[in-house]
Amino acid sequence: MKTRQALRQTIRNKRRQLTAQQQSDAALGLLHRFSADEKILRAQHIALYLSNDGELNTKLIIDWCWQQNKCVYLPVMHPFSKGHLLFLRFEQQTPLINNRYGISEPPLDVRTIIPAAQLDIICTPLVAFDKTGARLGMGGGFYDRTLSQWYKQEKQQNISSPYAIGLAHDCQLVDEIPTEVWDIPLPEILTPSTRYKFQ
Ligand SMILES: Nc1ncnc2c1ncn2[C@@H]1O[C@H](COP(=O)(O)OP(=O)(O)O)[C@@H](O)[C@H]1O
Ligand SMILES: [Mg+2]
Prior knowledge:
The chain has 199 residues and is of the alpha/beta class. The protein has helices spanning 4-16, 20-34, 38-42, 59-67, 142-157, and strands at residues 45-47, 71-77, 85-89, 97-98, 104-105, 113-114, 121-124, 128-129, 135-136, 163-167, 188-190, 195-197. The chain has a single domain (4-194), classed as Rossmann fold.
């Protein structure tokens, strides 16, 4: 089995090599699955992210959410709590600024923060996934940390929590992800061609 770092590199290269036409077909395919997903249709507060590095473009999905009067949120890195994410409201008129990694994000404004527990759905980016719902991210563990707060509790106490949906190109599916104890598996992943349900 490839190491996690080697797998990240292979799949990120593959993703970067998709042509502009493949990217726009994929974005449209994903929009069709996303807008027909029963959990999405019922959700009001949805965390998304802005794509980069060959990730599937989420712009069409964000526009669709706005048209449906759903509230969209984007992750920003917590300014003090290292490794943690905050989710900020993203509206059509929200300006975007470049963070220290050159990634666009909304400016930090306490009035637009939503406590993550109030999100109905958290859509996560990912580098690779397998047929069990295991997720390999960029290596920061941000979504593992975010989702871990509910993962064990929900199983034990059946409390409601944000539902996680991974978004990916079909070429990001691999045979097997070497997982670590802290990795949180995803209950659902949408690709342009397929809706994977793991639970
Ligand atoms: N719930 C958590 N609490 C504290 N540290 C975590 C948690 N989840 C992940 N991490 C840390 O984040 C780092 C990156 O995690 P990893 O799973 O490799 O990244 P990714 O999920 O982005 O692929 C690891 O060093 C791991 O220890
Ligand atoms: Mg992980």
